[in-house]
Amino acid sequence: MSQQELPFIISFLGGSISSTTAELVTFPMDMLKTRMQLGGTQGAMKYRGIFHIITHTYQTGGIGAFYRGMIPALVRQFTFSGIRISLYDKVKFLMGDDLASGGFWQRFVFGAGCGGFASFLVTPLDVCKVRVINDAKKEKYSGLIDCLKKTWSKDGFVHGFYKGSSPNIYRSVVVNAAELGTYDNSKALLMKNFSMREDSLWTRFWASVMAGFIAAVASSPIDVVKTRYMNATKEDPNVPKGSEVRYTSPLDCFKKIIKNEGFSALYNGFMFLWMRLGPWCVVMFITWDLYKDAAKKYYLQQKTKEELRK
C-alpha cells in the first residue's frame, strides 16, 4: 500500500495534526510578521526593526502577547491543512504521481489547486486571525468567537468574512505550489542525485528547508497585501476623513503600497516570515511524513492479520 492510498480521513488528520504542531512551535513569528506587515498603517504601530517589535510586544503584554490570536490561528490551520493535504495526497494518487516517476511541474499545479480551494473555504477564519492579532490591547475583540460575531454584524458575509478572499487565495496558491511542489521535487532530486533514501530524516529535513525558503520569497508580496486588506474594516465614522488609508480592492491595496512606501514594503516582515516558514515547514513536513509512515505500517499490519484469518 502506498502512502497516497491512506483513507481520506486519515490523510486529513495527518495534515491537521502536523500543521497545528508546526503552528504551535512557530506562532510568535507569524504574529510578529503580521504586525510588521501593516507598517504603521490602519492605526497599527510602525516598528523600527526586529528588536523594537519584540521589546514593544513584550512590554505591552509579557510572554502572552506573543501568542495573541493563537486560537483562531490553530483552528484555521487544523481545518485548512487537513483539507489541502488530504486533497493533495488524493490527487497525486489518482494521477499516478510518485517520487520516482511523477512529473516535476505537475506537483506545483497540484499544490496550487488544492491550496487555493482549501483557502477559499477557511477565509473567514483567516480574516479573524489577522484582526485578533492586530488588536494587541483587546480593544475590539475578546477572542475568536467575539471577532466572528462582530465581523458578521458589522461587515457581513462578503465584506466581512470574505474580506481579502482573493489575495488570500492567490497567496495560498503560491505558497502551496511552492511548499508542496518544492518539497516533493526536492526529495526526488536528493534521491536521484545523492542516492538519499526517501525515509531518511536528512532527505526530509533539507527538502523542507528548501520548501520553506522558496515559499517565503514567492509569497511575501501577496502576504503583505492580504494582511493589510483583511485588517481594513469599513470606514469608521468616528475617524476624521482622510486619516485612514482605504482600499477599494486588493489591486488598489497593492498599488498604494508601491506608491506610498515603495516595492520594499512588500517584504515588510520578511525576516519573520522566513523565520516562521522555514521552521514551520521542517516541523510540518517531517511530522507529516512520520505520521504517514506510522499509518502505512498500521494498515499493512491490519491487512496481514486479515489475510492470516482467511
Tags for this model:
single chain, 310 residues, mainly alpha, Mitochondrial carrier fold, 74% helix, 0% strand, MCP_transmembrane, Mito_Metabolite_Transporter, transport, transmembrane
Summarize the topology.
Layout: H1 8-38, H2 50-61, H3 70-94, H4 104-133, H5 144-161, H6 165-194, H7 201-231, H8 250-261, H9 270-309
What does this structure look like?
- With 310 residues, the chain is mainly alpha-helical.
- The chain has a single domain, classed as Alpha/alpha barrel (Mitochondrial carrier fold).
- It is built from 9 helices and no strands.
- The longest helix is centred in the last third of the chain and has 40 residues.
- About 2% of the residues have low confidence.
- Pfam families: Mito_carr.
Note the main sheet: none
At CATH's second level, what is the architecture?
Alpha/alpha barrel
CATH class categorisation: Mainly Alpha
The helicity comes to over 70%
**Tell me, what's the shape?**
globular
- The average pLDDT value, as a whole number, equals 87
Q: Which class do the helix and strand fractions yield?
A: mainly alpha
Give the topology string: H per helix, E per strand: HHHHHHHHH
Q: CATH-wise, what's the superfamily?
A: Mitochondrial carrier domain
Distance between the termini: 19 Å
Low-confidence stretches: 236-241
